[in-house]
Amino acid sequence: MEAFNGEIGHNMFYTKEEREEDVLETLYLWWREGKPIRIPDICIEFDMTKRELSYIIKQMVKHGYVRRMEKDGGLELTSFGKAQGAECLARHQHLTQFIQMICGLDENLAEENACRMEHVVSGDVIHGICDFMKYGDSYDRIVRNANLRFFYDEGEYDFCMGIYRAEKRYPRVLADEYGFFSDEIHLKVGNEKSSFYLKKISDKGPEYLWYKAEFGWKQAESTARGFQIPTDVLTFTFGSRMLVMEGYGMIGFSDSRNTPPDSENYRELNVHIW
User: Fold this and answer.
1) 3-state secondary structure of 266
2) Pairing assessment for the beta strands 75-77 and 141-143 based on DSSP bridges
3) What are the start-end ranges of the E strands in the chain?
4) Residue by residue, what is the 3-state secondary structure of 69-130?
5) Which residues pair with 162 in a beta bridge?
6) Rounded to whole angstroms, what are the CA distances from 206 to 230, 253, 263?
7) Whose CA is closest to 233, among 142, 144, 140?
8) By the 8 A CB rule, do 77 and 31 touch?
9) What is the biggest distance separating any 2 CA atoms in the chain, rounded to whole angstroms?
10) Contact in structure between 74 and 41 (CB atoms under 8 Å)
11) How many other CB atoms are there within 10 angstroms of residue 114's CB atom?
């Protein structure tokens, strides 16, 4: 067993279930090629002892993938085993091609990654990957807890924003507080943290701004750029074809440094970035 090395993505050991599916995929390939399925050959292929393989074969018999052949001690795939083996192979191939296409990895490295992924992704994921590779299909997607450095280079940007009444969604209605702020919102993207800055253009209006984080309300820091709001407290919608995407989150206003806003002063901050 390999030693734990601490690097994310390299610390998961193969489970017995994963090894069983890998063996099934190989046996399916051998069956397609007309190669006899014999225990010594499987041991050599997977660098396993007969004792290690014995457990896997027992599980495969139990799961209905293979049956033992009495006359020569070999194995035979059942109809169910052939169908499931074909599914394993298809998953492996689709994921390998997808990783090569999207990540630019060579075939061997793509296969290495696909070999781990194929055991845990659902059928819906495989179906979506196939549609993407065949037709270029893509969909709107929701992203939470996002540092926007994964989408933008480190630097500073200006976008548009709106502040809406939280209780009025269809249609949305601008909140009175919107008039106290610039309709442009500043974004600073950093390596470890990214933030929006909401700048007041009037001395009127509430003095303190709060934002809703995962574990409750937090007071936004007042800076020369404006009220600082971390990007990871917003939820972003990425369009499949449109360049503009939307970020939204809950903010609130109060006249006290120590008192979070009450429900009457909750507002929705909406940011359009592109």
Assistant:
1) strand
2) unpaired
3) 66-68, 75-77, 141-143, 155-165, 184-189, 194-198, 208-213, 216-219, 221-223, 226-230, 235-238, 245-254, 266-273
4) CCCCCCEEECHHHHHHHHHHHHHHHHHHHHHHHHHCCCHHHHHHHHHHHCCCCCHHHHHHHH
5) 270
6) 20, 6, 15
7) 144
8) yes
9) 92
10) no
11) 21
**Separation CA 58–CA 50 (nearest Å):** 12
Pairing of strands 141-143, 235-238: antiparallel
Instruction: Show the tokens assigned to 119.
Output: 């055991």
Say if residues 255 and 205 touch (Cβ distance below 8 Å): no
Q: Burial of 6 by CB count in 10 Å (0-12 exposed, 13-18 middle, 19+ buried)?
A: exposed
Residue with tokens 């020569």: 72
**In the numeric block, which tokens belong to residue 125?**
């994921």
DSSP annotation of 13 reads: P
H or E segment at 260?
none
The tens-digit pLDDT sequence of the chain (274 residues) is: 455 666 766 666 778 899 999 999 999 999 999 999 999 999 999 999 999 999 999 999 999 999 998 777 789 999 999 999 999 999 999 999 999 998 999 999 999 899 889 999 999 999 999 988 888 888 888 888 888 887 889 999 999 999 999 987 778 899 999 999 999 999 999 988 999 999 999 888 888 999 999 899 999 999 999 999 999 999 998 776 655 688 999 999 998 888 999 999 999 999 998 8
Q: pLDDT digit string (tens) for 80-92?
A: 999 999 999 999 9
**What is the per-residue pLDDT for 244?**
61
Tokens, residue 221: 């820091």
| Cα gap 113→110, rounded to integer Å | 5
